[in-house]
Specification:
Number of strands of chain C: 2
Low-confidence stretches of chain A: none
Number of domains of chain A: 1
Number of helices of chain C: 21
CATH class of chain A: Mainly Alpha
Largest sheet of chain A: none
Chains: A mainly alpha (117), B mainly alpha (139), C mainly alpha (503)
Helix content of chain C: over 70%
Largest interface: A-C, 37 and 29 residues
Largest sheet of chain C: 2 strands, antiparallel
Strand content of chain A: under 5%
Mean pLDDT of chain C: 88
Radius of gyration of chain A: 21 Å
Radius of gyration of chain C: 22 Å
Strand content of chain C: under 5%
Structural class of chain A: mainly alpha
Distance between the termini of chain A: 53 Å
Shape of chain A: elongated
Oligomer: heterotrimer
Chain lengths: 117, 139, 503
């Protein structure tokens, strides 16, 4: 399980960075989303995966015993997801405005226009 | 995207989804759910209704601009966070009323915080979607 | 006063932001609440500062969860003084905006976003937890995204595009570094990490996490290879927004770098060399960039990059003297950079342009104003009794003591080029003859403003100039504080102990 997730994380980072390096603005956004999800997966992976042992104290016990899943990574990931939700929504609106105002969807033509300004 | 099927379905789906979002909001403290998810479900309900008919219909339905929900929700959440300071506790300490209630469980500052988050999420999501939709009309 | 009250600055900013959200379209109430709120913020920060100075570190555990498990808020002397400095420049920018922003622009929700930005900044100063720091940083960047696109001109959107992309990548790297740290130690509390990181077996992975952290924050801070977004975007928004960006945004990154690298990612010889080299290159490249620019705001943007190098140099040398210099420079830089961007706004209001070609004649028509802007400009260079001088002395002393002659040379070169650039600006803007005022569309000349608006332009500049004069002439008092902060940074045992509270 860990190995598969590790490979998947690496793949997501690679794909995200590859897409960010493209000229197209839409691919940039997709790349940022994939990169963000990759890092969330990395937190999940590095937090340690324990299946089927929720960190819940049983009715007749006073503390956790044995192996139990770490509850913190899910809180971290949830926070990171909420934050990236906001940021990506903003970035999409920005790109849309850029496209509406400039009519281009390509970093090279943006650069040319900027030099002309 | 105004097909008859979606339109009819959305009319029934919206109240159900809104009710479901409140349910999710209230059970959030001990079971999966909470303000953020509840807020997203509520805004999905409104957005589905808007897409099935027209975006203006949500505005007619709400009767106020959803942006006002953001400060309302933010002040509820701030209140929930600050309240423990008056009892000489660190911020965001959970204060609870004694007694248990059906569906909700116990009532405390965490619930107030979640309700605030719910409003902020609904307000922010609808504001974003409205502004994108309005710009599309202009093109 | 209980320690729990250290959260008050954050709460105050949050309350102002919410109040100005309620007064959505009534900009006059927004202005009032912003100024009054920032005065309260400043007063509370001062009280907290003197309390911390007398009684030591304040710690509050969010939600009453004990230290390594919950979110910890800490206020030591470093963060308390950062709060005071934030309050000073925040108040100045509030007044400046209240006067300079026409109603149409202010309608685009400036004040709520501005106070969310200050909320994030003051939050990151009291964060005692790495993930909490990340969350505050995200709050800062999302608010700064809002501000940099405010008004939404074509040029601004393009500046914003670079800014947004680079910051999102930087956040992802920061998050990756946090993931590594959590995977290695199972903790994110800063004090707990200071205990656990040295015990990690795989120190190579710690170095990788440290470098990822440095790259992630380095992009936000605009250090050497990652600074290109800053001069490409900081000259696009309004002067008031550039002022708060130039003054505070990059400096929060410096604060976080100093905090983290002095607490648990202790720079070993390899990382120390990397940081020193990057500092020197930042100084040189920033100075070179500033030297060839012919636009007031672009010159200042490049000087931000250049002067980041001073603070990173202090971190690279890593001795008490050098860290005291870096901290003192940090204080001085926030005030001065905020001030000079407001000066650029004033020059625009007088000349109608930002480029050297169209500005001039300030001494001829406004001799008192040119005397006033001499204070921030010469403090920026570091003419001896003024505020930029003392931290540089400390940094050079630290560099010579640590045999880092390359850094000393870079610091001297950076200072010298700053001198030449500001001298050029001074000659052009103040001493040369008045050029034709460039009346673009919607341009209102300084003379056409009402008296209250003119005061709102000049008062914040004068206010921050007085503050930097105090930094210069009250240097002994400031040096005392900077030395205490540096001691605490080098020997963080007290910090760790007051958070973890072990016997």
């Amino acid at each position: 399980m860990e190995t598969v997730l590790a490979i998947l994380t690496g793949f997501m980072y690679a794909a995200g960075i590859y897409l960010i390096l493209r000229r197209s603005l839409v691919k940039l956004i997709v790349g940022l989303i994939i990169l963000g999800n990759g890092s969330n997966l990395l937190i999940f992976l590095l937090g340690g995966i324990t299946r089927g042992n929720p960190p819940v104290i049983g009715e007749n016990e006073s503390m956790l015993t044995g192996i139990y899943a770490d509850p913190l990574p899910q809180a971290l990931i949830l926070t990171a997801i909420v934050i990236s939700f906001g940021l990506q929504a903003f970035a999409m609106v920005l790109l849309q405005r850029e496209y509406v105002q400039g009519g281009v969807e390509d970093f090279d033509s943006i650069k040319e226009e900027e030099e002309a300004l | 995207m105004t097909t008859l099927i979606l339109k009819t379905a959305a009319t029934y789906l919206m109240p159900l989804l809104l009710l479901f979002s409140v349910f999710i909001l209230l059970r959030g403290h001990y079971l999966p759910g909470g303000g953020f998810i509840g807020g997203l479900i509520a805004s999905i309900a409104l957005v589905v209704y808007g897409y099935a008919n027209r975006i203006d219909r949500i505005k007619q339905f709400l009767r106020f601009h959803p942006g006002i929900l953001i400060p309302v929700g933010a002040s509820l959440s701030t209140l929930a966070a600050v309240l423990p300071l008056f009892f000489n506790q660190p911020v965001m300490t959970g204060l609870w009323l004694s007694g248990s209630y059906p569906i909700i469980g116990s009532i405390g500052t965490a619930l107030l915080f979640d309700i605030g988050v719910y409003f902020v999420v609904v307000g922010a999501t609808l504001t974003i979607i409205f502004s994108i939709a309005e710009e599309n009309v202009k093109i | 006063m209980t320690d729990n009250l250290l959260i008050l600055p954050v709460i105050i900013q949050l309350v102002i932001a919410v109040i100005s959200l309620f007064f959505w379209s009534r900009t006059n109430y927004q202005r009032l609440s912003s100024i009054v709120g920032n005065v309260i913020f400043l007063a509370v920060s001062f009280i907290l500062f003197f309390y911390v100075k007398e009684n030591g570190i304040m710690v509050s555990q969010g939600g009453n969860w004990p230290a390594p498990f919950g979110i910890t808020f800490v206020l030591d002397l470093f963060s308390a003084s950062m709060l005071v400095i934030t309050g000073l420049s925040g108040l100045a920018v509030s007044i400046f905006t209240a006067g300079s922003m026409s109603r149409r622009r202010a309608l685009f929700v400036f004040f709520p976003i501005y106070h969310f930005l200050l909320l994030g900044i003051s939050g990151s100063f009291i964060a005692g937890d790495l993930f909490n720091l990340y969350v505050w940083f995200e709050l800062i960047i999302i608010a700064s995204f809002g501000l940099i696109t405010l008004g939404g001109g074509r040029r601004q959107l393009e500046g914003a595009l670079k800014y947004v992309t680079l910051n999102l990548v930087a956040s992802t790297l920061f998050l990756t570094s946090i993931a590594f740290v959590y995977g290695l130690t199972g903790s994110l509390n800063l004090a707990d990490l200071a205990v656990k990181i040295p015990e990690v077996e795989n120190q190579d992975l710690v170095s990788i996490a440290a470098l990822l952290f440095f790259v992630g924050l380095g992009i936000k801070t605009a250090v050497f290879p990652m600074y290109f977004w800053l001069p490409a975007s900081y000259h696009t928004p309004m002067s008031a927004i550039s002022a708060i960006f130039g003054g505070l945004l990059t400096k929060v990154g410096v604060y976080a770098l100093i905090r983290v690298f002095s607490l648990f990612f202790l720079p070993d010889s390899y990382i120390g060399t990397v940081i020193s080299a990057i500092a020197a290159l930042t100084l040189i490249m920033g100075a070179m960039g500033a030297f060839i620019q012919k636009d007031v705001r672009k010159v200042f943007s490049w000087l931000i990059v250049c002067h980041i190098g001073f603070m990173i140099a202090g971190l690279g040398i890593f001795s008490t003297v050098a860290l005291a210099g870096a901290v003192l420079y940090l204080f001085h830089d926030i005030i001065i950079k905020t001030n000079i961007f407001m000066v650029s706004g004033l020059l625009y209001r007088i000349n109608g342009a930002h480029t050297f070609k169209f500005i001039g004649g300030l001494y001829e028509h406004y001799p008192k104003l040119s005397f006033l802007i001499a204070i921030p400009l010469f403090s920026l260079i570091g003419i001896p009794p003024l505020s930029g001088f003392w931290p540089k002395i400390l940094l050079i002393e630290g560099g010579i003591q640590g045999f880092d002659y390359f850094i000393v040379a870079a610091i001297l070169l950076g200072s010298f080029v700053t001198l030449v650039t500001i001298g050029k600006l001074w000659v052009t803007a103040v001493w040369s003859e008045q050029k034709q005022v460039k009346y673009v569309k919607h341009f209102i000349h300084f003379k056409q403003l009402s008296k209250a608006q003119r005061i709102a332009y000049v008062f914040p500049i004068a206010f921050l100039s007085v503050v930097s004069l105090f930094f210069g002439f009250g240097a002994f008092w400031m040096l005392d504080i900077a030395n205490r902060i540096a001691e605490e940074l080098i020997n963080p045992e007290l910090y760790i102990q007051s958070i973890l509270q072990f016997q």
